[in-house]
Design brief:
Strand content: 25-35%
CATH architecture: 3-Layer(aba) Sandwich
Largest sheet: 5 strands, mixed
Number of helices: 4
CATH class: Alpha Beta
Low-confidence stretches: 172-189
Shape: globular
Distance between the termini: 72 Å
Mean pLDDT: 83
Order of helices and strands: HEEEEHEEEEEEEHH
Helix content: 25-40%
Structural class: alpha+beta
Number of domains: 1
Number of strands: 11
């Protein structure tokens, strides 16, 4: 007997899991993050703030098993809307978070096949995409290259990387920086 699997439910579950994981990693120190429910609420997937440093991140999260992930114009528009609503924050970014799963899914001879690969995540700043004639579809590949759809075809558009608060660069405080400078000075002697 065959078991029917609803791929829509699997994708939704994978998406929720990635969003939940991002919120957990963001809720650290001065950062507060909440999952907002995404498309069903007309809001971005996640909003994160650092009130001490006046930073707001409006995040659209995508995860999948393919070689490319896509952000639709309405999803990007919701993130841009939230970014513009909060004038208090000195630094505001729209972040597109992409997670490529450890298993790559593809079809071979009409059968779905999974192949192992390295899990990768990319965080891209999409602040300037509202300056185009229309808000585009954004595509991110497994290698981290980004593209936007213009006139029905994709063109390369290098979106800058963003270092998330839970990644290395944000974790260095003044003492760590001072220690590193002293260590480098000692090695130079």
């Amino acid at each position: 007997m065959y078991q029917v699997i609803d791929l829509g439910n699997i994708r939704r579950s994978r998406g929720y899991s990635y969003e939940h994981n991002l919120v957990q990693r963001l809720n650290n120190g001065s950062w507060i993050a909440r999952r907002l429910g995404g498309s069903s609420t007309g809001l971005p997937d996640i909003v994160a703030v650092n009130n001490k440093e006046a930073i707001l991140l409006s995040i659209e999260a995508k995860s999948g098993t393919g070689d490319a992930l896509y952000v639709q114009p309405d999803q990007l528009q919701r993130c841009l809307l939230i970014r513009h609503m909060f004038g208090y924050y000195k630094t505001k970014h729209v972040i597109l978070a992409f997670k490529f799963m450890r298993k790559k899914r593809f079809t071979r001879k009409n059968h779905v096949v999974y192949e192992k690969r390295r899990l990768v995540e990319y965080y891209k700043i999409a602040d300037k995409l509202n300056m185009l004639d229309s808000i585009p579809v954004v595509k991110c590949t497994y290698s981290g290259r980004t593209f936007v759809m213009n006139n029905g075809s994709f063109a390369m558009k290098s979106l800058p990387n963003y270092v998330m608060p839970f990644q290395g660069a944000h974790l260095h405080n003044k003492k760590t920086t001072q220690f590193m400078k002293q260590s480098i000075a000692t090695l130079s002697c």
